Amino acid sequence: MRGYRLTVALSFALVLAVPIQATAFVPRAGSTVIVTEQIRDDLYVAGGTVEVTGEVDGDVVAAGGTVTLSGPATGGILVSGGNVTIRGSVGRSIRAAAGTLAVGGRIGTDAVLAGGNVNVERGAEVGRDLVVAAGSVQVSARVHRNAYLTGGSVTIAGTIDGNVEAQADEVVLLPTARINGSLRYSSRRPIEIQPGAQVTGQVTRVARPSRSRSMLNPASRFGFRFAGRVIEAIWLLVIGFIMVAVAPRAVHRVKDRVGGRFGMSLLTGFVLAVVVPFAVILLLVTFIGIPVALVVMFLYFATLYPGQVFVTAWLGEAIVRRLGGRQGAVSPYLTYALGVLVLMILVALPFVGWLFRLLAICTGFGALWAAIWSARVRGMQPAPPAV
User: Fold this and answer.
1) Of the candidates 182, 209, 236, which is a domain's last residue?
2) What are phi and psi of 34, to 5 degrees?
3) How far from each other are the two terminal CA atoms of the chain, in whole angstroms?
């Protein structure tokens, strides 16, 4: 654990490049991370499987394949993952995105949720507004103000004290639904209000936002998306091939860090991606900090997106090994091209593609800067005395 904390702290120092005071937090990372004790600080956690049952007296920032947050948190929650479950009480707001997302418990202020399937469960309570964008949206909770819901299908079974705005292919009010304000919706078919459902205000169907005829054509939309993926794949191939040709050992070291320390790389990249812009704003306040801020932002943008190169290299190598190929027997360029192909397929998946993109960017970004810092630390160590 001491090594994990050191890696995160050193990555901050490297990117910020100035001696500014950082906000305290507790980092946890690994393939499986379970937090049962009480945390008297903000908690930053990442891993393949993450489970937090202890109380957190602060904010929770989490990312992983499967994330379960059942302990209470006095602050807010920012979480991203494949399968995310939040059932502990939250003092402030929730910002969550996942392939499958379930939210229960009491939320102090707002909840902003996105994913493939989002379920705001019965018994949950949102102190202010609820905002959801997903392929499938199910709201069975109580929302004390307004709800803004967008998805392929939207189903309401709970109580909304304010107004509801819904945009979906299908909108359904179950018998337990109670809307104490008005309901505005946009859908391909009329709303289904089942017997027992109640809406105090007006129910208004509005037209969908107008688009050009070409954008409404599914074939045209597919063509734009396909062309974009091809251009991005070519761009990643060019960047990766140049890096493999110029610095093969460096690419190999960072790629190995992605595979060997995936959770820590994801956590480090996630923290840096969130914190660095705020640090730049602080630097811009003082005149002397402006040049440093410009350098930091240049490094930030120059390494954030290209960090995916190391994740794609790791993906390609993992697939070659799974197919029975021996390390070194396959050209690194062919291996990398295979990784780019797999990544493009993953990010093109509906509703969850953006999640794979986020994981690739944060993991590659974190692994790169952690490797740079490790190399710098090794270079600063004194050489052993000559015998």
Assistant:
1) 209
2) -125, 125
3) 35
Its domain, for residue 162, covers 38-209
Instruction: Name the residue with tokens 């697939």.
Output: 319
Q: Are 295 and 14 in contact (CB under 8 A)?
A: no
| Sign, Cα dihedral of 166, 168, 171, 176 | negative
Residue 25 is assigned to a structural domain of this protein? no
| pLDDT tens readout for residues 341-373 | 888 888 887 766 777 888 888 888 888 888 888
Residue listed under structure tokens 């800067």: 369
pTM of the model: 0.64
Is there a domain that residue 61 lies in? yes
What is d(CA 191, CA 153) in angstroms, rounded to the nearest whole number? 11
**Mean pLDDT lowest among 155-169, 206-220, 303-317, 326-340:** 206-220
Q: Are residues 159 and 272 in the same domain?
A: no
Residues 292 and 154 in one domain: no
- Percentage above 70 pLDDT, the chain: 80
CA distances for 311 relative to 25, 318, 358, 372, 378, angstroms: 27, 10, 12, 16, 24
Helix 332-347 vs helix 353-380: crossing angle, to nearest 10:
140
**Do 265 and 186 lie in a common domain?**
no
Among the listed residues 105, 126, 110, 121, the one whose alpha carbon sits nearest the alpha carbon of residue 53: 105
Task: For residues 63 and 172, state if they share a domain.
Answer: yes
- Counting every residue written for the chain, the total comes to 387
6-60 pLDDT tens trace: 333 333 443 333 333 344 578 887 778 899 999 998 888 877 788 999 999 999 9
**Residue 195 maps to a domain:** yes
